[in-house]
Amino acid sequence: MSEHPRGTDEFDLIERIRARVVARDDVMLGIGDDAAIVQVPAGQQLVIATDTLNAGVHFPADTAPADIGWKALAVNLSDLAAMAAQPAWCTLSLSLPHADAAWLDAFLDGFLDLAAQHRVTLVGGDTTRGPPSICVTVHGLVAPGRALRRDGARVGDEVWVSGTLGDAAGGLAQWRAGGAIDASLRARLDRPTPRICTGLALAEVAHAGIDVSDGLLADLGHICRASDVGAQVELARLPVSAALRAAYAESERHALQATGGDDYELCFTTPPQARATIGRIAAETGTALTRIGRIVAGSGVQAFTAAGTAWIPDRAGYAHFAG
Amino acid sequence: MSEHPRGTDEFDLIERIRARVVARDDVMLGIGDDAAIVQVPAGQQLVIATDTLNAGVHFPADTAPADIGWKALAVNLSDLAAMAAQPAWCTLSLSLPHADAAWLDAFLDGFLDLAAQHRVTLVGGDTTRGPPSICVTVHGLVAPGRALRRDGARVGDEVWVSGTLGDAAGGLAQWRAGGAIDASLRARLDRPTPRICTGLALAEVAHAGIDVSDGLLADLGHICRASDVGAQVELARLPVSAALRAAYAESERHALQATGGDDYELCFTTPPQARATIGRIAAETGTALTRIGRIVAGSGVQAFTAAGTAWIPDRAGYAHFAG
């Protein structure tokens, strides 16, 4: 509703974005019209995910623009990974308090670096004035029936997780405390790795999957609710990075690993006879895959210490709205 | 990054949304997993548009939640109309300062009313904490080669526009002035009509099209730049509503009609021999279609008064970032 002379910054920003986008054969019409047109290959279904990042809510206010760009796309690609979908296209809706070409260029450095890694083409979007906010919608492809859903876990399945858990939450806790921040933990907070290849490979064997964005226990809880089952997790089995182990005592660490958000690892369930296949996928994708528990009859997620006693978290996952 | 007990408001909001969504046969997996899965029909291409509305930038702060919901979807559907695409699915990413179920329910009243009119199914999205902001991505379908693009205008084409122009800007100007606001002008600001049927019908005859969101002269300028042509527009031909005529003197009115944003009418170009077809489309879709000028060689858009003198606006369209 703000009225200004034409030839303005908004169009300049869009042109800056358009100039850096790489082509894909299946993009019939990219940035610059009222909408984009793409060709979904025959025999493929379209997978759609969207996530918004707001300053101070989803990333610390001091986050570098390139890291914001990376993370805005990464959290969306992580949703495609959790569906075992092959990424294809994305849109970007960017709200900024004022047109800032240097900020945008740095943002695009991170965003487009990650896009190039997964051959995702930015096909459209808009730039608007407002508090800093980034809304990304990603589009992926999957063969019918091959998607990894939340509702397929079965009693007797084993529960697995990729990578390590708690690093992002550990880095965030250090940032909040105001002291020294371990660089590798902060990097896990700022530059999560969407597990695309791992997700695609798991489609052949996993019964259910989700990405860990709200915290392991919360996200595994989503699988349990959707699948009408329960789960048991052993805290001692949760994969831990050397940096997290060095930075936190065990009890704090377990809380970060079990309930910290922003890991963007994959949590999935498989039948016990799939262990060899899981090992092969871990080797082929260069991603650690760790068995952490099992699916049981009932409901809810129970965590146990090495001594076999039930562990009750102070909090199990976070929600953006509460409080 | 805010950490809270589970069982929280964010999931409650998503459940409130999911409970009200209507089904479509081509939605394989809707709200509730990491992503949605849809089936694009064979022989159709996918059309994608995304637009964000921020409070105080794209709608007055006192706008009713139901109107915000309507408008957030309408401005996106308008992009599909301008492409001559058939709407199919959408996602919604909603940022709110705090979870407010009553606000959300009212928002959904407007959003889902419009969605139902066009058989658009909400397939996913997210809710996050932050300043009020609504990001919608819409997906439509078009047969290959049938989309209405900006780059097809040809010298000799006639320029047309749907509906009436300037109403939304007239209502906004009254709101800003703080005095009485004409209800029909305010309704045009709050509840724009995406010209879906008209856009679909125009695919058979129009060379180029765009929706009027930034102002007629600015948006027609986008067609001219994309098509490498110029345009001439006669101010006296611009369609005007009775409400706008009653509320503003002619010179103010012309400025609102030529440069006011938020109309979400279609501006399109056709060969002169298409007049009869345009008349038929207007009758069949119940939408006024008015010839307002022509495409000429050169570049830029010139506006002329009834006396034939060039008219120079104080401003030609608005951009969200400038200033």
UniProtKB/TrEMBL annotation, chains A, B:
SUPFAM superfamilies: PurM C-terminal domain-like, PurM N-terminal domain-like. Coiled coil: none annotated. Substrate binds at residues 58, 262, 318. Residues 154-302 form the PurM-like C-terminal domain. Mg(2+) 2 binds at residues 51, 79. Mg(2+) 5 binds at residue 214. Mg(2+) 4 binds at residues 34, 79. Mg(2+) 1 binds at residues 50-51, 126. Its EC number is 2.7.4.16. It is an enzyme of class 2 (transferase). The keyword Nucleotide-binding applies. ATP binds at residues 125-126, 150, 213. Residues 32-142 form the PurM-like N-terminal domain. It catalyses: thiamine phosphate + ATP = thiamine diphosphate + ADP. It comes from the Bacteria. Keywords: ATP-binding, Kinase, Magnesium, Metal-binding, Nucleotide-binding, Thiamine biosynthesis, Transferase. It holds the Pfam family AIRS_C. One of its GO terms (molecular function) is thiamine-phosphate kinase activity. Pathway: Cofactor biosynthesis; thiamine diphosphate biosynthesis; thiamine diphosphate from thiamine phosphate: step 1/1. PANTHER family: THIAMINE-MONOPHOSPHATE KINASE (PTHR30270:SF0). Catalyzes the ATP-dependent phosphorylation of thiamine-monophosphate (TMP) to form thiamine-pyrophosphate (TPP), the active form of vitamin B1. Reaction mechanism of ThiL seems to utilize a direct, inline transfer of the gamma-phosphate of ATP to TMP rather than a phosphorylated enzyme intermediate. Belongs to the thiamine-monophosphate kinase family. This is Thiamine-monophosphate kinase. It comes from Lysobacter koreensis.
